[in-house]
Amino acid sequence: MGVSWQAYPVPLSERQAHLGALRTVLDARPELTCGVVERRGEPAALSVVWRGRPQRLIEVGCDFFEGAWWFTWGDGRRITPVSDVAYAVALVVRELART
Fold it and tell me: Domain of 67?
């Protein structure tokens, strides 16, 4: 008899799930492109740029503060709770447009 194997999906962390939701909305915008950045010893983050203008880069993370998950800028400042993905996108676009 052969051995039967079944693959199970690896569960995402809450951080990965929230960043994934944000990435989905950012990727839907034709002027933006983003990808996941992982550095040893640090939580994953999204790197976001205007297509064709990669000199301006924004990093967006996700951290747990005071009992809730928040999107954060690369320097750790809070952007908005993860429940407001649309507002996070608007702020990322506004920040990228500043240059």
Answer: 14-97
